[in-house]
Structures are given as structure tokens and as C-alpha cells.
């Protein structure tokens, strides 16, 4: 199938989507877009009436097809997951509770924590994104709960206690982490790390140096802690906004991510990324 043709974004969009949807070249572009989005998404998702929402779902499908997110859903022990996590440190109580949550209890006397690791290489210049959803039952001391991206150049590390969250030596963001499950997303690209809590940017911090590569989560202190992990997701092809960010920023981020996932060079301009995509992706 041919790529889009035209001298500007409007012409490119009309040409590309008309071909994809099997419509005449002069068909209304919004009709062609909607027909194609629905054909690609399918199922209940295609019932969404907003074309903007359909566009986001279509882009996410492209991205996940080209660069799948690694998803640990915590419905089995990390060492039994695919891909399997390596368990580091002394043994602590670990189980999957009836709700499908990874439940870790650290023994205050004998244990020196427990953490899990995926050892893999990824690029600091490209960036990476790690998101976890968890609830703190008890974490009095620093490093009773942590998770981090290690990109071989920098470490992007989040530390959580009962009352605060810290990003790689930042000033603490004070909150009650025990009241419910919360979603924490850390992104790293170049020097800065960014931490989003429940979809809101809360901390930006200069990253510390670290030559190690990998993704880690757990507890590495000899004090007692109890943690409930609902999921751990990560990807190593960019530093991406959470979906709850301002809509235009999120859509722009998706277009940038989609262009990169096709092996093309993205820009920071959504119109330029659209034109790159339509001119090169058949």
C-alpha cells in the first residue's frame, strides 16, 4: 500500500486515510479517519464516539505492536512471570493474595529486604519509562520501598515511605501513601528524572550517575515493611507522559512515540511528526 502524498499536512492526511479506509481520495478526511480507526481498534473500544479518543487508541496500538511495554501484572510471583524477574537479597515473605496483588512482608529482625530485577540494556539518550501501582501498608524507613530505572549512565530512583515520596535525593513530596493504591511513574532521559503521582507531575530532579543497567523494585532495608504491588510496567524506547496529562500534550507524546516506534526520527512538533508518519509508513 502506498504512503500518503501531498504538499501539506491536510493533503497528506486525506490521501493516507482515504487509502487505508478504501474511500475515494476526496472523501471527507474525518470520515476516512473514523472508518480507519474503528477498523483497526475493533471491539468495544471502537464504540467511543470521540474521534480524539479513537486517534489515541489507534496510536497506542501502533506503539504497543512495534515496541511492546513489559507488563508484570502481579498475579504470579515475579520469578514465575514472563519475562522472569531475578530475586535479589535475603528472603522475605512473598505471596500473591486473593486479589491478585504481590504482597511482600519484610522481617524486621532477620531480613535485609527483597527486591526484583530485570537486567537489560537501554539508552539514556533515548529514555525510559517505569510505572507502578502500589499501596504502602508499612514503610517507616527510607528504602523500605523503592523502584528504579538504571540506564547505564544515570539512575532514576523513587523511594517511598508511609508519609513521603522522594526522587533520587530530591526534597520529599509529602503524602499519605498508606491510604490507598497510588500510581507512580518515573521517566528518565538525559540528566533529569521526572516523577508523576496519580498522573500529576510532582518532582523533577537531576539524576545521579550509575553505570549499572536494569529495572528494579522492592525493599532493601533491614527494617520491617509491608508492601502491596498491583503492577509494574516499563518501556525502554522513550520518556513518556501519563495518559492523564493535558490532552494536547498526551496526544503529541503519542505521535512522537509512534514515529519513533516505526524507526523514524521524531521531532517535538506534532504536525511534523504526523507528516513524517504519513510520508513514510505504508
Helices and strands in order:
Layout: H1 9-21, H2 29-41, H3 51-66, E1 70-72, E2 86-88, E3 93-96, E4 102-106, E5 114-118, E6 128-139, E7 146-151, E8 154-160, E9 164-167, E10 173-174, E11 182-188, E12 192-197, E13 200-206, E14 208-209, E15 213-219, E16 225-235, H4 247-261, H5 270-280
Antiparallel strand pairs: 1-16, 2-5, 3-4, 4-16, 5-15, 6-11, 6-16, 7-8, 7-15, 8-9, 8-14, 9-10, 11-12, 12-13
Outline the structure in words.
This protein has 282 residues and is of the alpha+beta class. The chain folds into two domains: 9-67 and 245-280, no CATH class; 70-235, Jelly Rolls (Sandwich), CATH 2.60.120.200. The protein is 24% helix and 32% strand. It contains five helices and 16 strands. It has helices spanning 9-21, 29-41, 51-66, 247-261, 270-280, and strands at residues 70-72, 86-88, 93-96, 102-106, 114-118, 128-139, 146-151, 154-160, 164-167, 173-174, 182-188, 192-197, 200-206, 208-209, 213-219, 225-235. A hairpin with a 2-residue loop joins strand 12 and strand 13. Helix 2 crosses helix 3 (51-66) and helix 3 packs parallel to helix 4 (247-261). The protein starts with 8 loop residues before the first helix and ends with a helix.
